[in-house]
Design the sequence.
């Protein structure tokens, strides 16, 4: 049987999660977001297409699994909460593609999480009609600019039988007959779980949706992760070792760190004395004000093709974000942090870039040039 499909287009409909799923993970990077599952203290399992770069001209139904990996330091993960940014925050230190061109990938965390991971189920072939649960963080509707969910959502599904599996039982499928009760953009990598002996076990990672030659309706697609136990174990065994607490290298680093801190602290005190603000002066804001956020939201709504460019701050200058419209017109407001910029962009469907990585687009420079030209009467 032929299966075709692409990346998940958050759970539309479904239910808001009320119980704790400590293994549920938000996976975010500068170009979007996905979902994932904590399978060990240092490893998160997600969809393979969530950790690779985009390719110019890439077809919508092509997951791009052969594309190069993204930079690990571009990822931020939030673990074990029913509120999107309420979970335990971690960075990524390494990305690993799945085997045999399967749409799965692993993200190694920069340090262990103390949240309880979910166990991967023993190798299995799903039975027709078997009940399962999809848990994810994606958009709340199918439209392109729809916001991502701020709460964890779940969707009960009924798996197809073995007749709907591809060779090797590597793909799980289920019918998506109701467009208001299915997966959507940002759900990719979301864990598909079953209950066994009173506990949750992981059987799949959401890949997307598609169609089947045996059915005229839409189907959901997930990678059957129970078929890759050996790869998961072998990859987890390669975890980047942590430095021993009494190693000579660590002692040297600590001593050097103390010296650097002392030097910087003295330089900072001298700088503060030279730049001490006059009495009554206010210190720079450390985060965006409500009026800044409201202004940027209204500005973006009134213009088309808006993109956001994060500009990091310094010890004395607060981080900002520059909004640039399709015609090059731009505006700048305080944002406070990269996380705040990504949150602002995800809630409004605006792509967010780090300016020190991408630079400003040419259309902004063209707009500035036009603005400098003298106007003729």
Sequence:
């Amino acid at each position: 049987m032929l299966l075709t499909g692409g990346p998940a287009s958050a759970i539309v409909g479904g239910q808001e999660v009320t119980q704790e799923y400590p293994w549920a993970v938000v996976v975010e990077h500068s170009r979007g977001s996905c979902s994932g599952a904590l399978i060990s203290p240092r490893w998160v399992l997600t969809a393979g297409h969530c950790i690779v770069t985009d390719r110019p001209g890439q077809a919508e139904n092509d997951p791009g699994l052969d594309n190069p990996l993204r930079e690990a330091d571009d990822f931020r993960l939030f673990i074990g909460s029913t509120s999107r940014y309420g979970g335990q925050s971690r960075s990524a230190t390494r990305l690993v593609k799945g085997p045999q061109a399967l749409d799965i990938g692993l993200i190694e965390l920069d340090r262990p999480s103390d949240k309880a991971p979910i166990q991967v189920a023993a190798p299995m072939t799903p039975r027709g009609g078997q009940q399962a649960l999809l848990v994810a963080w994606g958009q709340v509707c199918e439209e392109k600019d729809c916001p991502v969910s701020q709460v964890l959502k779940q969707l009960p599904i009924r798996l197809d039988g073995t007749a709907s599996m591809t060779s090797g039982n590597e793909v799980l499928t289920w019918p998506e007959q109701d467009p208001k009760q299915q997966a959507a953009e940002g759900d990719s990598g979301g864990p598909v779980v079953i209950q066994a002996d009173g506990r949750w076990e992981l059987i799949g990672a959401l890949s997307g949706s598609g169609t089947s030659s045996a059915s005229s309706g839409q189907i959901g697609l997930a990678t059957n992760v129970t078929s890759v136990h050996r790869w998961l174990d072998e990859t987890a065994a390669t975890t980047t070792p942590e430095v021993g607490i009494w190693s000579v290298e660590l002692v040297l680093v600590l001593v050097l760190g103390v010296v650097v801190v002392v030097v910087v602290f003295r330089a900072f005190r001298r700088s503060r004395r030279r730049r001490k603000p006059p009495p009554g002066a206010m210190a720079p804001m450390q985060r965006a004000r409500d009026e800044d956020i409201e202004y940027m939201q209204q500005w973006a709504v009134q213009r088309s093709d808006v993109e956001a460019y994060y500009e990091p701050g310094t010890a004395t200058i607060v981080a900002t974000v520059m909004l640039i419209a399709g015609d090059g017109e731009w505006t700048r407001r305080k944002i406070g942090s990269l996380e705040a910029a990504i949150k602002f962009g995800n809630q409004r469907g605006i792509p967010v870039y780090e300016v020190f990585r991408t630079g400003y687009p040419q259309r902004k420079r063209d707009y500035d040039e036009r603005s400098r030209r003298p106007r003729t009467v």
Observations:
- The radius of gyration is 24 Å.
- The chain has six helices and 19 strands.
- Confidence is low (pLDDT under 50) at residues 1-10, 163-167, 279-285.
- The chain has three domains: 3-236, 244-272, 290-372.
